[in-house]
Amino acid sequence: MTEYQTISRYDATAPAHRSGSIKLHGPAGFAGMRAAGRLAAEIMDALVPHVVPGVTTQELDDLVFKLMSDAGAHPATLGYRGYMKSSCTSINHVVCHGIPGPKPLKDGDIVNIDVTPVLNGWHGDTSRMYLVGDVPVKARRLVDVTYECLMLGLEQAKPGNMLGDISHAIQSHAERNRYSVVRDFCGHGLGQLFHDAPEVVHAGKPGTGPELRPGMFFTVEPMINIGKATCKVLEDGWTAVTRDRSLSAQFEHSIGITDTGCEIFTLSPKGWHKPPYLPAA
Ligand code: MF3
Ligand code: CO
Ligand code: CO
Question: Quick one: which of 40, 171, 234, 238 has the fewest CB in 10 Å?
Answer without folding.
Answer: 234
